[in-house]
C-alpha cells in the first residue's frame, strides 16, 4: 500500500509501488470504480472540461466523458504530439470520434486540433495521476506531457486528478516545476478539495 512508503522514497520507487498496487486491482473493482467516478463527475459543473480516455490500469471510463457531455459540457481530449512537449487538444463528440493514438492503447479524438492552448479554454481539467498528496503534488507516469501542458491552463481552472482512494497520500516527492492540483476525484471519496498555496 502507498501509505507504507518512506517519506524519502524517490519518484521511481513510488511509481513501482503504485504500479504493483494497480496491477492487483480486479476487473470487478475497476468496473465498480468507473461507475462511481461517472456518478461523482455528475456533480461537477463546467462549460469546457479537458479530460482523457483512461487506459490500462487507470481508474475511470469513457462513461465519465459522456456524463459531462450530457450535462452540456464541451469535452476536450489530449492528442499526444510527435515529440515530447505540451499536449494538443481536440473536441470529444462521442465514441465514434475516437481513434488509436500514437501510444498503444491510448484513444484520441479525430477532430480539428486546437493546439496546446486548447487547455486554456477549460474551466475544469481532469487528468490522470498515479497518486496525489495532500498538498496537491501530483505523481504522473514521468513523461512530463501534463506538466508542460498545464502552463497553458486558464488561471483559476480546477485541476483535478482522477485517482483511486488509496492513491491520495500524505506526501510525495516534489520538484519546482510540478503544478499543484486543486482537488482529486476518487471512486469512494468523490471530489476532495486540496489547499491552494
TrEMBL record:
Coiled coil regions, renumbered to chain: none
Gene3D superfamilies tied to this protein: NagB/RpiA/CoA transferase-like
Catalytic reaction annotation: (6S)-5-formyl-5,6,7,8-tetrahydrofolate + ATP = (6R)-5,10-methenyltetrahydrofolate + ADP + phosphate
TM regions (residue ranges): none
One MF annotation (Gene Ontology) recorded for this entry: 5-formyltetrahydrofolate cyclo-ligase activity
Sequence positions that bind substrate: 53, 58
Superkingdom in the source lineage: Bacteria
Enzyme Commission number(s) from the entry: 6.3.3.2
Family that this chain belongs to: Belongs to the 5-formyltetrahydrofolate cyclo-ligase family.
Official protein name in the record: 5-formyltetrahydrofolate cyclo-ligase
Native species: Prauserella flavalba
Amino acid at each position: 500500500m502507498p501509505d507504507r512508503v518512506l517519506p524519502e522514497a524517490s519518484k521511481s520507487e513510488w511509481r513501482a509501488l503504485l504500479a504493483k498496487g494497480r496491477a492487483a486491482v480486479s476487473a470487478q473493482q475497476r468496473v465498480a470504480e468507473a461507475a462511481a467516478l461517472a456518478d461523482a463527475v455528475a456533480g461537477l459543473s463546467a462549460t469546457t472540461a479537458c479530460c482523457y480516455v483512461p487506459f490500462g490500469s487507470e481508474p475511470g471510463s469513457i462513461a465519465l466523458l459522456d456524463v459531462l457531455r450530457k450535462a452540456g459540457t464541451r469535452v476536450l481530449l489530449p492528442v499526444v504530439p510527435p515529440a515530447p512537449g505540451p499536449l494538443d487538444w481536440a473536441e470529444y463528440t462521442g465514441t465514434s470520434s475516437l481513434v488509436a493514438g500514437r501510444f498503444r492503447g491510448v484513444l484520441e479524438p479525430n477532430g480539428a486540433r486546437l493546439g496546446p492552448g486548447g487547455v486554456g479554454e477549460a474551466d475544469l481539467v481532469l487528468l490522470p495521476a498515479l497518486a496525489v498528496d495532500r498538498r496537491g503534488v501530483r505523481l504522473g507516469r514521468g513523461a512530463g506531457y501534463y506538466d508542460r501542458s498545464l502552463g497553458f491552463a486558464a488561471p483559476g481552472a480546477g485541476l483535478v486528478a482522477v485517482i483511486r482512494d488509496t492513491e491520495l497520500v500524505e506526501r510525495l516527492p516534489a520538484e519546482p516545476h510540478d503544478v499543484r492540483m486543486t482537488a482529486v476525484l476518487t471512486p469512494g471519496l468523490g471530489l476532495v478539495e486540496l489547499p491552494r498555496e
